[in-house]
Amino acid sequence: MRYLTFLLVLSTLAACGPVNPPIKNPLKSNPSSLPLETIRLPEGFKIEVFEDSLENARSLCYSPNGTLFVGTRGEGKVYALRDTDGDFVADERYTLAEDLEMPNGVAFRDGALYVAEVSRILKFPDIENKLDKPGEPEVVYDQFPTEKHHGWKYIAFGPDGKLYVPVGAPCNICESEEEIFASITRMNPDGTELEVVQHGVRNTVGFTWHPEDQQLWFTDNGRDMLGDDIPACELNHATADGQHFGYPYCHQGDLLDEEFGEGKDCADYRAPAQNLGAHVAPLGVEFYTGAMFPADYKMRVLIAEHGSWNRTKKAGYRVMQVVLDENQNAVSYTLFAEGWLDEEEDEAWGRPVDLEFLPDGSMLVSDDFANAIYRISYQGEGS
C-alpha cells in the first residue's frame, strides 16, 4: 500500500512539473566559435552572439515582455528564447512545437503566438505563461495552398490589426489561374475574412510598415534562370491595396519576361522602390526607429540578404541599407554589414535571414546556416 501511495505521489509531481523545461545556453560558459572577426560594420558598431546553437533560425518576433520567438524552415520547430539577466545573451531556450511543416513565420499579438506552416496558421494562446507547457495549438486557418515551392511564409500583424500572410508562386516562373498565388493576403486574427491585398509578388519573405504613414514595404525575390545579373531582386512599396508588382510579366520595373511578358507593358505595374542585387535573396526588412544608432539612421530601411544559391559567383550574404528622401524615394542602397561570405574563396559561413530590434535600439539578425542569432549594437560617439 505504501509503495502504491509513493508511486501515486511521484506521478502527481511529474504531472505538475514542467513538460518542456528550458535548455540553458552553453554560451554562458563557452564562448562562441563563430568567426565574427570577419564581419565588417560601419565605424562604432559591434556584433556579438545572442544565440549560436539554434538549428535553422529564421523568422524573429520579440514580445513586449522580452520573449524572442523563432521560427524555422527545415527543422520543423518553433522556439522561445529568454534573456533573463539582461546581458544580451539568451539564457533559456524552449521548444514550443516540433514536427510542423516549414514553420517559418512567427507573430505575436494579445499574448498569443501565431505560427505559419505551409497551409495553416496556428495559434498558441497565453504562450508566455505556458512556455514549459505550451500544449496543442489552435488552428486559425487551414486553407492555404499545400504547394511547398515558395510555400514557407513570413507573417506579421499590420497597423490595421490584421494578420498578413504571403503566398508565393508555386514555381520559378509561371502564370497561375488561382489568384491567391504570388500574392500577399490578410485576415482577421481569428482567421476570418481572408482577402488578397497585393498581387504580382513572386516570393516575399519579409515585410514591414512605414512608421509614419503605415504603408506596406516588402522584399521580393526575383526569378531564376535568366543569368547571373538579371533580374534584380526588389524592395517594394505598396501605396494602396490591390496593386500589382509585375510577376510573372515584368521584373525589376523594366524587364519584360521572355515567356510571359509578350503583349505586356511594365508601365502597367507598380515599379520597385529600389532594385537590389540579382539573386541576393532579400528576406527580412525593417525601418530603424530606435535610439541607439546614430541619428542619421532614423527611418533607414535595413534588409537581410540571404545570398544566392545558383549564381556563378555568390552574391548577397549581407545586411544592406536603403536611405529614403522626404518623399520616400530611395536615394541610396549601400552595405551595412558583410563578411559572412569569403569572396576570394566564394564560400559562405553564414546567411542572414531576419531582423528584429530590441528595446534598447540594438538589432538582432538570425542566421539559418550558422544556426545563430547575432546582436548588432552601436558603441561609438554619442552612444
What strand order characterises the main sheet? 1-6-5-4-3
Instruction: Note the overall shape.
Output: globular
Helix vs. strand class: mainly beta
Q: What do the pLDDT scores average to?
A: 94
> Tell me about the biggest sheet?
5 strands, antiparallel
Report the span from N to C terminus: 68 Å
Which structural traits does this protein have?
single chain; 383 residues; mainly beta; 5-stranded antiparallel β-sheet; disordered N terminus
Task: Write up what this structure looks like.
- With 383 residues, the protein is mainly β.
- The protein has a domain at 37-57 and 280-383.
- Helix content is 4%, strand content 36%.
- The chain contains one helix and 30 strands.
- The strands form eight sheets. A five-stranded antiparallel beta sheet has the order 1-6-5-4-3, with no helix packed on it. Strands 11-12-13-14-18 form a five-stranded mixed beta sheet, with no helix packed on it.
- The longest helix has 15 residues, at 2-16.
- The radius of gyration is 22 Å and the shape is globular.
- The termini are far apart.
Summarize the structure.
With 383 residues, this protein is mostly beta strands.
Give the arrangement of secondary structure elements.
Elements: H1 2-16, E1 23-24, E2 45-51, E3 60-62, E4 67-71, E5 78-82, E6 92-97, E7 105-109, E8 112-116, E9 121-124, E10 138-141, E11 156-157, E12 163-167, E13 183-187, E14 195-199, E15 207-209, E16 216-220, E17 232-238, E18 243-244, E19 250-251, E20 255-256, E21 274-278, E22 282-287, E23 301-305, E24 318-324, E25 330-337, E26 341-342, E27 347-348, E28 352-357, E29 363-367, E30 372-378
